[in-house]
Design brief:
Layout: H1 3-28, H2 42-72, H3 77-83, H4 85-93, H5 95-105, H6 108-125, H7 134-162, H8 169-207, H9 214-222, H10 238-277
Helix pairs in contact: 2-7, 2-8, 2-10, 4-7, 5-7, 6-7, 6-10, 7-8, 8-10
């Protein structure tokens, strides 16, 4: 394990220890920054667990999807930015409609269905390989994921606000935002390691068939943290470079598919949490 991996693992362990210490300290204060008594509400706890799972999945998606488009699918930076735009537009356009779902059905039903739809979107992102056409491969997945998020976000905010007393609404909103930020950081750190490990495993397995010199193989393995954008040592023939680039793209897709399936699992877990913790009467 290199120094980079050791630093990441060490930071994760230290961060977890500090988080546990923070909870213990807050539990003993008379005026805590985060009143832990708020989590006595099943609706509040369920909404924040859903936030943790769903926003972790969304964070690693938005981290890896542009890398996929640029490094593997050879999109320009402008095209990459535009590729996810339908997702944002769907959430914006449908926000008023999804808020009306709470009035009609209560918050529990949309918060069960929305993450399940989002999970379907993540599964669709796991299908395309290298050289995939955007409109046939990625656009349907973007639409499904955007629709799932549109169903979820407004009811989630409603549950967070309505699950606490009126004088604690600001605190509840701040805690929920903090949970979303923590989820993003954890997802990029933990699932980033999963992505790099899966990429390196698949690439090393396929490179073994090329009979490359040990020095060249070592140089390639040393830059696997750059994923499909890894730097190749000089002196390789154009045909060898093309083959290695192709194998790197396939290795990226292998890791990306694994992470997308994990994201789908996180979304399903969020839906299960809502079903178990948030009562039918939640508004």
């Amino acid at each position: 394990m290199g120094w980079g991996h050791a630093l990441v693992y060490g930071s994760l362990i230290a961060g977890f220890c500090f988080l546990v210490a923070f909870v213990f300290v807050e539990a003993r204060l008379t005026s805590p920054i985060v009143p832990l008594t708020l989590f006595a509400s099943r609706s509040f706890s369920g909404a924040n667990l859903l936030t943790l799972f769903l926003y972790a999945a969304i964070a690693i998606f938005f981290f890896l999807f542009p890398i996929n488009l640029i490094q593997v699918q050879a999109y320009s930076a402008t095209a990459t930015g535009a590729a996810a735009l339908p997702l944002i537009l769907l959430m914006f356009v449908l926000s008023h409609w999804s808020g009306g779902l709470v009035t009609r059905y209560g918050a529990r039903v949309p918060l069960i269905i929305g993450p399940l739809v989002g999970a379907s979107g993540f599964v669709l992102f796991a299908v395309p390989s290298t050289g995939a056409n955007y409109w046939k491969a990625f656009f349907p997945a973007v639409v499904v994921l955007g629709f799932g998020m549109a169903i979820t976000v407004a009811p989630l905010t409603t549950v967070v606000m309505n699950s606490v007393d009126q004088d604690r609404v600001g605190t509840a909103s701040g805690i929920n935002n903090a949970v979303a930020r923590v989820a993003s950081v954890l997802a990029i750190a933990v699932l980033g390691i999963v992505m790099v490990s899966a990429f390196a495993f698949r690439l090393n397995h396929t490179l073994a068939t090329l009979s490359l010199p040990p020095g060249v193989l070592h140089d390639i393995q040393a830059s696997d943290i750059k994923l499909a954008g890894l730097q190749l040592p000089p002196g390789l023939s154009a045909s060898t470079v093309a083959v290695i680039r192709g194998l790197a793209g396939e290795a990226f897709v292998f890791g990306f598919r694994l992470v997308m399936l994990i994201c789908a699992s996180l979304s399903v877990a969020g839906s299960v949490v809502v079903w178990l913790l948030i009562p039918k009467s939640a508004q």
